[in-house]
Predict the 3D structure of the following.
Amino acid sequence: MTSILITGGTGFIGYNLIKYLLSNTDYQIISLDKYRNHRITHSRVNYMVHDLRNPLDQTLINEMGDIEHIIHLAGATDAGESISNPSKYVLDNIIGTLNLLEYSRNNLIDLKKFIYFNTAEVYGPSRGTIFSEDQSYYAINPYAATKIGAQEMCLVYHRLYNIPVITTYTTNSFGPMQSDKKFIPLMIDRILSEQVVYVHADKSKRPMKRNYLHVDDVCGATLFLMKNGLPGAKYNITAKENIDNLKIVRIIASSLNKELKYELVFPRDSPLALPMLSGEKLRNLGWIPKKKFEESLREFVRWKVKK
Protein backbone atom coordinates (compact mmCIF):
# COMPACT_ATOMS: atom_id res chain seq x y z
CA MET A 1 0.00 0.00 0.00
CA THR A 2 1.46 3.36 -1.06
CA SER A 3 1.91 5.86 1.79
CA ILE A 4 1.88 9.57 1.07
CA LEU A 5 2.67 12.48 3.37
CA ILE A 6 0.89 15.76 2.66
CA THR A 7 2.00 18.84 4.57
CA GLY A 8 -0.71 21.46 4.89
CA GLY A 9 -3.48 18.91 4.33
CA THR A 10 -6.06 21.07 6.10
CA GLY A 11 -5.40 24.04 3.80
CA PHE A 12 -7.28 24.88 0.61
CA ILE A 13 -5.31 22.75 -1.87
CA GLY A 14 -4.37 20.14 0.74
CA TYR A 15 -7.98 19.50 1.77
CA ASN A 16 -9.06 19.08 -1.86
CA LEU A 17 -6.01 16.94 -2.67
CA ILE A 18 -6.87 14.50 0.11
CA LYS A 19 -10.44 14.24 -1.20
CA TYR A 20 -9.12 13.72 -4.72
CA LEU A 21 -6.65 10.99 -3.70
CA LEU A 22 -9.30 9.17 -1.68
CA SER A 23 -11.51 9.08 -4.79
CA ASN A 24 -8.80 8.20 -7.32
CA THR A 25 -6.23 6.03 -5.49
CA ASP A 26 -5.94 3.49 -2.68
CA TYR A 27 -3.13 5.47 -0.97
CA GLN A 28 -2.69 5.67 2.77
CA ILE A 29 -2.51 9.40 3.55
CA ILE A 30 -0.81 11.20 6.42
CA SER A 31 -1.57 14.91 6.77
CA LEU A 32 0.95 16.93 8.75
CA ASP A 33 -0.38 20.30 9.95
CA LYS A 34 -0.04 22.74 12.79
CA TYR A 35 -3.80 23.36 12.72
CA ARG A 36 -6.74 21.04 13.37
CA ASN A 37 -9.40 22.52 11.06
CA HIS A 38 -10.91 21.17 7.80
CA ARG A 39 -10.37 17.49 8.45
CA ILE A 40 -11.85 14.59 6.48
CA THR A 41 -12.94 11.53 8.43
CA HIS A 42 -11.73 8.44 6.58
CA SER A 43 -9.96 5.20 7.48
CA ARG A 44 -7.14 5.95 5.02
CA VAL A 45 -6.36 9.42 6.39
CA ASN A 46 -4.32 10.04 9.54
CA TYR A 47 -3.92 13.64 10.74
CA MET A 48 -0.89 14.57 12.82
CA VAL A 49 -0.14 17.93 14.41
CA HIS A 50 3.32 19.41 13.99
CA ASP A 51 4.78 22.86 13.31
CA LEU A 52 7.46 22.47 10.64
CA ARG A 53 9.38 25.39 12.09
CA ASN A 54 10.67 22.65 14.40
CA PRO A 55 12.47 19.45 13.33
CA LEU A 56 10.40 16.27 13.32
CA ASP A 57 10.99 14.30 16.54
CA GLN A 58 11.60 10.57 16.62
CA THR A 59 8.22 9.75 18.15
CA LEU A 60 6.43 11.44 15.24
CA ILE A 61 8.77 9.84 12.70
CA ASN A 62 8.08 6.38 14.11
CA GLU A 63 4.34 7.02 14.12
CA MET A 64 4.33 8.06 10.46
CA GLY A 65 6.25 4.96 9.36
CA ASP A 66 7.49 4.45 5.81
CA ILE A 67 6.62 7.22 3.34
CA GLU A 68 6.91 6.83 -0.44
CA HIS A 69 5.71 10.27 -1.58
CA ILE A 70 5.76 13.74 -0.03
CA ILE A 71 3.58 16.60 -1.25
CA HIS A 72 4.85 19.75 0.45
CA LEU A 73 2.06 22.33 0.52
CA ALA A 74 2.50 23.79 4.01
CA GLY A 75 3.72 27.34 4.45
CA ALA A 76 2.67 30.96 4.69
CA THR A 77 1.00 32.14 1.47
CA ASP A 78 -0.31 35.70 1.83
CA ALA A 79 1.96 37.93 -0.27
CA GLY A 80 0.47 41.09 1.21
CA GLU A 81 0.99 39.93 4.80
CA SER A 82 4.60 39.00 4.03
CA ILE A 83 5.41 42.67 3.45
CA SER A 84 4.57 43.54 7.06
CA ASN A 85 5.89 40.32 8.61
CA PRO A 86 8.80 38.93 6.55
CA SER A 87 10.32 36.87 9.38
CA LYS A 88 7.19 34.71 9.62
CA TYR A 89 7.65 33.77 5.96
CA VAL A 90 11.32 32.91 6.40
CA LEU A 91 10.44 30.60 9.29
CA ASP A 92 7.39 28.97 7.71
CA ASN A 93 8.64 28.65 4.15
CA ILE A 94 12.42 28.24 4.32
CA ILE A 95 13.03 26.72 7.76
CA GLY A 96 9.88 24.59 7.48
CA THR A 97 11.03 23.19 4.12
CA LEU A 98 14.56 22.58 5.44
CA ASN A 99 13.21 20.54 8.37
CA LEU A 100 11.11 18.43 5.99
CA LEU A 101 14.11 17.85 3.73
CA GLU A 102 16.25 16.80 6.69
CA TYR A 103 13.56 14.35 7.75
CA SER A 104 13.54 12.94 4.20
CA ARG A 105 17.33 12.69 3.98
CA ASN A 106 17.78 10.94 7.31
CA ASN A 107 14.75 8.66 7.45
CA LEU A 108 13.29 7.79 4.04
CA ILE A 109 15.22 5.23 2.04
CA ASP A 110 12.46 4.44 -0.48
CA LEU A 111 11.16 7.96 -1.13
CA LYS A 112 9.95 8.09 -4.74
CA LYS A 113 8.82 11.73 -5.11
CA PHE A 114 9.09 14.93 -3.08
CA ILE A 115 6.81 17.47 -4.77
CA TYR A 116 7.49 21.03 -3.65
CA PHE A 117 4.62 23.42 -4.39
CA ASN A 118 6.04 26.76 -5.41
CA THR A 119 4.03 29.74 -6.66
CA ALA A 120 3.78 31.71 -9.89
CA GLU A 121 4.50 34.78 -7.73
CA VAL A 122 8.25 34.01 -7.93
CA TYR A 123 8.38 35.15 -11.57
CA GLY A 124 7.22 38.67 -10.78
CA PRO A 125 4.75 40.70 -12.87
CA SER A 126 4.21 39.40 -16.39
CA ARG A 127 4.18 42.72 -18.26
CA GLY A 128 3.20 40.74 -21.35
CA THR A 129 5.54 37.78 -20.72
CA ILE A 130 4.25 34.21 -20.50
CA PHE A 131 6.70 32.47 -18.18
CA SER A 132 8.11 29.02 -18.85
CA GLU A 133 9.79 26.97 -16.13
CA ASP A 134 13.35 27.92 -17.10
CA GLN A 135 12.94 31.69 -16.90
CA SER A 136 14.59 33.74 -14.19
CA TYR A 137 12.84 34.82 -11.00
CA TYR A 138 12.03 38.34 -9.91
CA ALA A 139 10.67 38.40 -6.37
CA ILE A 140 8.91 41.64 -5.43
CA ASN A 141 7.72 40.61 -1.96
CA PRO A 142 9.08 38.47 0.92
CA TYR A 143 6.60 35.68 0.20
CA ALA A 144 8.04 35.14 -3.28
CA ALA A 145 11.62 35.47 -2.01
CA THR A 146 11.11 32.80 0.65
CA LYS A 147 9.45 30.44 -1.82
CA ILE A 148 12.48 30.81 -4.11
CA GLY A 149 14.80 30.17 -1.15
CA ALA A 150 12.92 27.03 -0.17
CA GLN A 151 12.92 25.80 -3.76
CA GLU A 152 16.68 26.26 -4.09
CA MET A 153 17.18 24.30 -0.87
CA CYS A 154 15.05 21.50 -2.34
CA LEU A 155 17.16 21.45 -5.49
CA VAL A 156 20.40 21.35 -3.48
CA TYR A 157 19.09 18.34 -1.57
CA HIS A 158 18.26 16.72 -4.90
CA ARG A 159 21.78 17.30 -6.21
CA LEU A 160 23.66 16.42 -3.01
CA TYR A 161 21.49 13.75 -1.40
CA ASN A 162 19.38 12.43 -4.30
CA ILE A 163 16.09 13.55 -2.77
CA PRO A 164 13.67 13.08 -5.73
CA VAL A 165 12.42 16.67 -5.78
CA ILE A 166 9.92 17.94 -8.32
CA THR A 167 9.00 21.64 -8.29
CA THR A 168 5.60 22.89 -9.38
CA TYR A 169 4.43 26.46 -9.98
CA THR A 170 0.71 26.87 -9.65
CA THR A 171 -1.48 29.39 -11.35
CA ASN A 172 -4.49 31.04 -9.67
CA SER A 173 -6.73 28.23 -8.46
CA PHE A 174 -10.26 28.31 -7.09
CA GLY A 175 -12.77 25.93 -5.58
CA PRO A 176 -14.32 24.70 -2.32
CA MET A 177 -12.67 25.72 0.96
CA GLN A 178 -10.78 28.65 -0.59
CA SER A 179 -10.18 31.69 1.60
CA ASP A 180 -12.80 34.42 1.30
CA LYS A 181 -9.94 36.90 0.80
CA LYS A 182 -9.05 35.48 -2.61
CA PHE A 183 -10.33 37.15 -5.78
CA ILE A 184 -13.14 34.83 -6.88
CA PRO A 185 -14.66 34.16 -3.40
CA LEU A 186 -14.34 37.88 -2.62
CA MET A 187 -16.16 38.81 -5.84
CA ILE A 188 -18.93 36.32 -5.07
CA ASP A 189 -19.49 37.85 -1.64
CA ARG A 190 -19.48 41.42 -2.94
CA ILE A 191 -21.76 40.78 -5.89
CA LEU A 192 -24.13 38.80 -3.67
CA SER A 193 -24.36 41.78 -1.30
CA GLU A 194 -24.83 44.11 -4.31
CA GLN A 195 -21.61 46.06 -3.74
CA VAL A 196 -19.56 47.72 -6.46
CA VAL A 197 -16.63 45.52 -7.48
CA TYR A 198 -13.34 46.87 -8.78
CA VAL A 199 -11.84 45.18 -11.81
CA HIS A 200 -8.17 45.71 -12.67
CA ALA A 201 -7.57 47.06 -16.16
CA ASP A 202 -4.62 48.49 -18.08
CA LYS A 203 -4.20 52.19 -18.83
CA SER A 204 -6.41 51.89 -21.90
CA LYS A 205 -9.20 50.41 -19.75
CA ARG A 206 -8.90 46.89 -21.13
CA PRO A 207 -9.61 44.37 -18.33
CA MET A 208 -6.51 42.48 -17.21
CA LYS A 209 -6.39 38.76 -17.85
CA ARG A 210 -5.52 36.04 -15.37
CA ASN A 211 -5.15 32.30 -15.60
CA TYR A 212 -7.53 30.30 -13.37
CA LEU A 213 -7.61 26.57 -12.77
CA HIS A 214 -10.14 24.66 -10.69
CA VAL A 215 -8.52 23.03 -7.66
CA ASP A 216 -9.56 19.54 -8.86
CA ASP A 217 -7.31 20.05 -11.89
CA VAL A 218 -4.43 21.11 -9.62
CA CYS A 219 -4.98 17.85 -7.73
CA GLY A 220 -5.12 15.86 -10.96
CA ALA A 221 -1.85 17.41 -12.12
CA THR A 222 -0.24 16.54 -8.79
CA LEU A 223 -1.20 12.87 -9.06
CA PHE A 224 -0.02 12.88 -12.69
CA LEU A 225 3.39 14.22 -11.63
CA MET A 226 3.69 11.66 -8.85
CA LYS A 227 3.48 9.02 -11.57
CA ASN A 228 5.19 10.76 -14.51
CA GLY A 229 7.29 13.70 -13.28
CA LEU A 230 11.08 13.58 -13.44
CA PRO A 231 13.09 14.26 -10.25
CA GLY A 232 14.94 17.56 -10.55
CA ALA A 233 12.42 18.93 -13.07
CA LYS A 234 10.09 21.93 -12.78
CA TYR A 235 6.52 22.10 -14.06
CA ASN A 236 3.95 24.88 -14.37
CA ILE A 237 0.42 23.80 -13.48
CA THR A 238 -1.85 26.13 -15.39
CA ALA A 239 -4.93 26.37 -17.57
CA LYS A 240 -4.51 26.79 -21.32
CA GLU A 241 -6.56 29.96 -21.70
CA ASN A 242 -6.39 33.30 -19.90
CA ILE A 243 -9.67 34.90 -18.80
CA ASP A 244 -10.15 38.61 -18.26
CA ASN A 245 -11.35 39.70 -14.85
CA LEU A 246 -14.46 41.42 -16.22
CA LYS A 247 -15.66 38.18 -17.82
CA ILE A 248 -15.16 36.42 -14.48
CA VAL A 249 -17.31 38.86 -12.52
CA ARG A 250 -19.97 38.80 -15.25
CA ILE A 251 -20.20 35.01 -14.97
CA ILE A 252 -20.46 35.31 -11.18
CA ALA A 253 -23.21 37.96 -11.41
CA SER A 254 -25.11 35.85 -13.93
CA SER A 255 -24.83 32.78 -11.68
CA LEU A 256 -26.18 34.78 -8.75
CA ASN A 257 -28.90 36.49 -10.80
CA LYS A 258 -27.55 39.81 -9.59
CA GLU A 259 -26.93 43.08 -11.37
CA LEU A 260 -23.21 43.66 -11.82
CA LYS A 261 -21.96 46.98 -10.49
CA TYR A 262 -18.32 47.45 -11.37
CA GLU A 263 -15.56 49.95 -12.03
CA LEU A 264 -12.44 49.41 -14.11
CA VAL A 265 -9.38 50.56 -12.17
CA PHE A 266 -5.73 50.79 -13.09
CA PRO A 267 -3.52 49.35 -10.30
CA ARG A 268 -0.46 51.50 -9.79
CA ASP A 269 2.89 50.02 -8.76
CA SER A 270 2.17 47.11 -6.44
CA PRO A 271 4.41 44.70 -4.51
CA LEU A 272 2.08 41.88 -5.60
CA ALA A 273 2.72 40.04 -8.84
CA LEU A 274 0.23 38.88 -11.48
CA PRO A 275 2.35 36.45 -13.52
CA MET A 276 1.11 34.43 -16.49
CA LEU A 277 2.47 30.90 -16.96
CA SER A 278 3.00 28.61 -19.90
CA GLY A 279 1.68 25.09 -19.30
CA GLU A 280 3.16 23.62 -22.47
CA LYS A 281 5.74 21.41 -20.72
CA LEU A 282 3.17 19.57 -18.61
CA ARG A 283 0.70 19.31 -21.49
CA ASN A 284 3.44 17.81 -23.69
CA LEU A 285 3.98 15.21 -20.98
CA GLY A 286 0.33 14.18 -21.39
CA TRP A 287 -1.64 16.10 -18.75
CA ILE A 288 -4.59 18.32 -19.64
CA PRO A 289 -7.17 20.01 -17.36
CA LYS A 290 -10.53 18.26 -17.24
CA LYS A 291 -12.65 21.12 -15.91
CA LYS A 292 -14.21 23.77 -18.19
CA PHE A 293 -13.68 27.21 -16.68
CA GLU A 294 -17.17 28.70 -16.91
CA GLU A 295 -18.91 25.52 -15.87
CA SER A 296 -16.62 24.97 -12.87
CA LEU A 297 -16.88 28.64 -11.84
CA ARG A 298 -20.67 28.46 -11.82
CA GLU A 299 -20.44 25.20 -9.85
CA PHE A 300 -18.21 26.91 -7.27
CA VAL A 301 -20.60 29.87 -6.99
CA ARG A 302 -23.43 27.43 -6.18
CA TRP A 303 -21.26 25.66 -3.59
CA LYS A 304 -20.30 28.91 -1.89
CA VAL A 305 -23.86 30.21 -1.70
CA LYS A 306 -25.05 26.95 -0.11
CA LYS A 307 -22.07 26.67 2.28
Remarks:
- The two ends are 35 Å apart (CA to CA).
- The chain has a mean pLDDT of 93.
